[in-house]
Amino acid sequence: MTDTFPAPMTTLPLRPLPPAHKSSVSTLWQALRGADRSDRIYKLALTLLALALPLLTVVILGVLFVNALPALRRFGPSFLWTSTWDPVAEVYGAAPMIFGTLASSLLALLIAVPLALGVAIYISEFAPKWIRQPIAFLVELLAAIPSVVYGLWGVFVLIPFLRTWVVPPLRATLGWTPLFSGVFYGSSLLAGAIILAIMIVPYIAAVAREVLLAVPASQREAALGMGATRWEAVWTAVVPYGRAGLIGAVILGLGRALGETMAVTMVIGNRHDIGLSVLQPAYTMAAALANEFSEATTDIYLSALFEVGLILFVVTVVVNALARVLIWSVARGTAVGSRAL
Predict the structure, then answer these.
(1) Which stretches of the chain drop beneath a pLDDT of 70?
(2) Exposed (0-12), middle (13-18) or buried (19+): which is 43, by Cβ within 10 Å?
(3) What pLDDT, on the 0 to 100 scale, is given for residue 34?
(4) pLDDT at res. 324
């Protein structure tokens, strides 16, 4: 029997790719590596757009600082604690405005935080599924109402209600304290704080709800497994886990309250004075800018208003940045939180 062996294979010569084929492969490789011209242009455009907003913030800060420089040089740090605001003598101090801004915002937080956190906890933990979205929508709808409408409502509804039903019993029971002393005329720090509280509730409630939804389900299951009720599980496991984010939501509401202008201007009274009573008129930095910018006839008057705007800008940016950092510390890396935050 004759053994047969397969015929040796013939090696075909390798032909170089045609120039057109080389070009298409190179183009595809550049596109995959992101080196295509259109990709570079698109990336550059997105980078410029991303840098535009921080640059705009820096430009606003620079404009405020340059225009406030004459007042900074003339009044120095005493501008922060001087109460005199006399355009005739050209002596300016922003202490009553700073006090009114902080007092109205903090009083608004005292009213808004319990309500907003209660709404957020109910929507995220206790409400039936079919009613969660409608309630969340109605609460967030408050943020869509123009501030001037809030101001009109405050003038024609809130102030008469306070004058008739709220202030008389407060003065009868707590009138001996400095907080509720004096005559109540209507426009007051209390009215401004209530308007602010209504306006910041949707912001605090929306962020707090997303923070609570970002808490892992294992926290709730562990508490329930230990025999806790639903309320005990929320109060001892869910809320402490998201404490930093909830504090961030509150500070975010504070930042919103600090910069509110029109509604507060219409109901706070706009009196340049420092008083302990919440029944007396007050003044805020935003209200001062809205009321007096058109009346500034001298350079130093205008520069003093720019310094007020610079103080308000710095305080608001710092407060909002702190709130965002606290919220990120809870929602970072979670699916629910990352979509909303």
Answers:
(1) 1-36, 330-341
(2) exposed
(3) 52
(4) 78
Q: Residue 323, Cα to own-chain centre: how many angstroms?
A: 8
- 165's tokens: 């039903």
85-86 and 91-92 beta bridge pairing: antiparallel
For every residue of the chain, which 3-state class applies, written as one string? CCCCCCCCCCCCCCCCCCHHHHHHHHHHHHHHCCCCHHHHHHHHHHHHHHHHHHHHHHHHHHHHHHHHHHHHHHHHHHHHCCCCEECCCCEECCHHHHHHHHHHHHHHHHHHHHHHHHHHHHHHHHCCHHHHHHHHHHHHHHHHCCHHHHHHHHHHHHHHHHHHHHHHHHHHHHCCCHHHCCCCCCCCHHHHHHHHHHHHHHHHHHHHHHHHHHCCHHHHHHHHHCCCCHHHHHHHHHHHHCHHHHHHHHHHHHHHHHCCCHHHHHHCECCCCCCCCCCCCECCHHHHHHHHHHHCCCHHHHHHHHHHHHHHHHHHHHHHHHHHHHHHHHHCCCHHHHHHC
Query: pTM above 0.90?
Result: no
Our measurement of the distance from residue 43's CA atom to the centroid of its chain's CA atoms, rounded to an integer in Å, reads 29
Token pair recorded at residue 238: 């869910």
Helix pair 285-292, 299-331: axis angle to 10 deg = 140
What is the pLDDT, as a whole number, of residue 338?
31
152-205 residue pLDDT tens: 999 999 999 999 999 999 998 998 999 998 889 889 999 999 999 999 999 999
Q: What pLDDT score was predicted for residue 25?
A: 53
